[in-house]
């Protein structure tokens, strides 16, 4: 019996040697590894910009779709949809997950904790990863999670500052946000930050809680000029998912709307200050590349956005009858003006 086993092993070794010889002689490369990347985003907009940049950057690094890498991209909204997608990714045995928004990252993190192996998670937009409980430290996450924060939560006060700079006598500002019962860490922290800062700036905040994506259209209609002169959003993917509803209401009511990033300004907000999501996508791709090369997520420090942009929408300004001060316009990195061209970007 032992002799038979030894004989079989010798035959297999010989066959393997012949196959390797044929590959070498005919210059046929050995089969390449295909990495399966899942992408989970709560909503679209800015996240689509980052995801497109992420994929293009990976292509530049040698990961060609259909050959070296395969993608499964899910754009969802509710917690149930996030949890379902996260479970699917774990069950499908993906090699890495790229997430966008705090709820998406939390859902993915929780799903991977019961997986047979620690699937790496790289977030491309998240307000406060520590507060969300998906990492234990900034320099060393201590978990299977790393990525690039969006600074959306911390920049909430910047939106109030922008409104005050544009209109020094502004007094009331509407703030639609995820209702507290939804337990969105980034959204809740945005509200807390704004509530602390507003009195020092001389602004009264009027809060408008939202409980679902469908609720956005109803809440937006409640924000009128009689109630508020301005409007802001926090680090809140639920509100971002229906940003057009708030932008349209702001135009109709002639309200100054300070949103987050350039994409949200392109979608109709008056001004915004946030990450260049093209650059953020590049950062995320570089992190994924490190992981594919063998580095552990817990050993990769959390990154901040390398580039922030001030964006202004002159089309919106004209629609609400507001003149952007020339000195403010000079500072803008992105100017939306369809009378001239779709948009201009200053580096």
Structure description:
By secondary structure, this protein is of the alpha/beta class. The chain has two domains: 35-150 and 276-299, Response regulator (Rossmann fold, 3-Layer(aba) Sandwich), CATH 3.40.50; 156-275 and 307-345, Response regulator (Rossmann fold, 3-Layer(aba) Sandwich), CATH 3.40.50. Helix content is 44%, strand content 20%. The protein has helices at residues 2-26, 46-60, 79-91, 102-112, 129-132, 156-166, 185-201, 215-222, 237-240, 243-253, 262-266, 277-292, 314-319, 326-331, and strands at residues 35-42, 69-76, 96-100, 121-125, 145-147, 172-178, 204-210, 230-232, 256-259, 271-275, 308-313, 334-337, 341-345. Strands 7-6-8-9-10-11-12-13 form an eight-stranded mixed β-sheet, sandwiched between helices. Strands 2-1-3-4-5 form a five-stranded parallel β-sheet, sandwiched between helices. Helix 2 (46-60) packs across helix 12, helix 3 packs across helix 4 and helix 6 runs parallel beside helix 7 (185-201).
């Amino acid at each position: 019996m032992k002799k038979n086993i030894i004989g079989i092993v010798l035959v297999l070794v010989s066959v393997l040697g012949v196959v390797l010889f044929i590959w070498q002689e005919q210059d046929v490369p050995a089969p390449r590894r295909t990495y399966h990347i899942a992408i989970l985003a709560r909503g679209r907009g800015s996240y689509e910009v980052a995801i497109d940049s992420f994929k293009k950057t990976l292509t530049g690094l040698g990961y060609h779709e259909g050959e070296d890498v395969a993608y499964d991209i899910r754009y969802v909204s509710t917690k149930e949809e996030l949890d379902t997608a996260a479970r699917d990714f774990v069950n499908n045995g993906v090699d890495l997950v790229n997430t966008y928004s705090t709820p998406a990252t939390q859902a993915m993190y929780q799903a991977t904790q019961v997986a047979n192996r620690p699937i790496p998670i790289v977030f491309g937009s998240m307000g406060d990863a520590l507060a969300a409980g998906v990492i234990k430290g900034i320099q060393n996450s201590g978990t299977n999670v790393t990525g690039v924060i969006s600074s959306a939560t911390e920049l909430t006060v910047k939106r109030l500052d922008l409104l005050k700079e544009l209109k020094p006598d502004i007094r009331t500002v509407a703030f639609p946000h995820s209702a507290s019962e939804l337990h969105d860490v980034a959204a809740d922290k945005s509200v807390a930050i704004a509530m602390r800062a507003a009195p020092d700036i001389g602004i009264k905040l009027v809060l408008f809680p939202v409980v679902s994506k469908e609720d956005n259209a109803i809440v937006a209609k409640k924000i009128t000029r009689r109630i508020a002169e301005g409007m802001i959003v926090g680090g809140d993917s639920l509100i971002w998912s229906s940003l057009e509803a708030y932008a349209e209401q702001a135009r109709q009511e002639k309200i100054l709307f300070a949103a987050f990033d350039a994409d949200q300004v392109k979608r109709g907000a008056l001004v915004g200050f946030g990450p260049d999501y093209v650059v953020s996508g590049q950062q995320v791709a570089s992190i994924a590349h490190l992981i594919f090369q063998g580095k552990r997520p817990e050993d990769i420090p959390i990154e901040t956005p390398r580039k922030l942009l001030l964006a202004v929408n002159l089309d919106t300004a004209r629609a609400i009858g507001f003149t952007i001060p020339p000195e403010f316009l000079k500072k803008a990195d992105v100017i939306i003006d369809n009378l001239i061209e779709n948009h201009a970007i200053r580096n």
